[in-house]
Write a structure and sequence with these properties.
By secondary structure, this protein is α/β, with parallel strands linked by helices. It folds into two domains: about 5-110, Rossmann fold, CATH 3.40.50; about 115-220, Hexapeptide repeat proteins (UDP N-Acetylglucosamine Acyltransferase, domain 1, 3 Solenoid), CATH 2.160.10. About 15% of the residues lie in helices and about 30% in strands. It contains four helices and 25 strands. The protein has helices at about 5-15, 30-40, 70-75, 95-105; strands at about 20-25, 45-50, 60, 65-70, 80-85, 110, 110-115, 120, 125, 130, 135, 140-145, 150, 155, 160, 165, 170-175, 180, 185, 190, 195, 200-205, 210, 215-220, 225. An eight-stranded mixed beta sheet has the order 7-10-13-16-19-22-24-25, with helices on one face. A six-stranded mixed beta sheet has the order 3-4-2-1-5-6, sandwiched between helices. A six-stranded parallel beta sheet has the order 8-11-14-17-20-23, with no helix packed on it. Helix 4 (about 95-105) links the parallel strand 5 and strand 6 (about 110). The protein is globular, with a radius of gyration of 18 Å.
């Protein structure tokens, strides 16, 4: 049943819910997942997507790519909120560049939580972060700026996720884990309780981390070992 995505439903939402205008920065696969989260909530009305110049005029699901990222300042002046919807695996370079560009233009970052996710009242979630469908952020957890907590990921009590990190689908951060900045935790990876993960680390899918990771690099395996 597609009532939730019908034009009638969209009009109903706009009439009966207080919704802020939102521009998405990035129109790839991650943006499509984020759009689904936005449409399942009632906080934001998507006004368009900003991407590379050559993609202007293309569509992502029901939304147009309206401009290129060199014109972000113009859209800031039109009183929009923004969300960075570029995906992140090996590099955060595009996401951090867009964040800097938006900050310099004094743009407002949205924070998005799926109504199907569970975020404790005792947790904190930073600006620009996205908590996707069926994710869990438990009590006293701290999620930083522009973090992605992807579908069915778990961030347990007292865990910390640094800025610009991505906790991928089904990954588990157990209690007291501290993940640094610009870290990627692959799908269904598990981080043992109390473990510390340094900045700029990539942890492969299904990896089990049972010792602190103190140096940047790529780690895989059960238990985790440094690949490069």
């Amino acid at each position: 049943m597609l009532v939730g995505r019908s034009p009638v439903w969209q009009i109903f939402r706009q009439l009966f819910f207080h919704m802020r205008n939102l521009i998405l920065l990035g129109g790839g696969g991650h943006a499509r997942s984020v759009i689904d989260v936005i449409e399942s909530a009632s906080d934001y009305r998507i006004q368009g997507i900003i991407d590379r110049k050559e993609r202007v005029g293309h569509r992502v699901l029901n939304y147009s790519i309206v401009d290129s990222d060199e014109n972000i300042e113009k859209w800031v002046q039109s009183d929009q909120d923004f969300l960075i919807t570029v995906g992140q695996i090996e590099s955060t370079a595009v996401r951090t560049r867009l964040d800097k560009q938006l900050s310099e233009a004094k743009g407002r970052l949205a924070t998005l939580t799926s109504p199907l996710a569970r975020v404790s009242l005792y947790a904190t979630v930073g600006e620009g972060a996205v908590v996707m469908h069926f994710a869990l952020v438990n009590a006293n957890a701290q999620v930083g700026r522009n973090v992605i907590i992807n579908t069915r990921a778990t961030v347990e009590h007292d865990a910390i996720v640094g800025d610009f990190s991505h906790i991928s689908t089904g990954a588990i951060l157990n209690g007291g884990v501290a993940v640094g900045q610009q870290v990627f935790i692959g799908s269904h990876a598990t981080i043992q309780q109390g473990i510390v993960v340094a900045d700029n680390v990539i942890i492969g899918a299904h990896t089990y981390v049972n010792q602190d990771i103190t140096e940047p690099g790529v780690y895989v395996g059960v238990p985790a070992r440094r690949l490069r």
